[in-house]
Amino acid sequence: MDHREDDPSGIEKRRYKRKTVMWSGKLSLLWGARLSNEEHTVAGVVRDMSVSGAKFQTKDVFSATAGVVLEVPRFGNFNCKMIWQDGYVVGLNFDESPEEIYKTITEALPGIAIDPNPI
């Protein structure tokens, strides 16, 4: 169940196209969320990314929280809201505008689109 925004007919409903990536990163958990060992960060991999959000996978079990910071060494930190969690995989929406995210990631993802309906 990787495509949380697909509807039952299989039609993609995401506003911005996502690109598959495999970037190391970590989530910093906010507002009292804790890992089982009382840490506040979760190491893992960014699996895909768009100008509006990302999919992040980890090997650690952690409690869901709405507010997180996605830390990607090649770009820096992104404030996010966790919109879904399926085991070790979470879907994130960036708090910053798509235009700001585009400026940050466009060199690493040349095919990334800021146009919500790319041709």
Automatic annotation (TrEMBL):
InterPro entries recorded: PilZ_domain
Alphabetized Pfam families for the sequence: PilZ (PF07238)
Domain PilZ per the UniProt entry, residue ranges: 12-105
SUPFAM superfamilies associated with the record: PilZ domain-like
Name used for this protein in its record: PilZ domain-containing protein
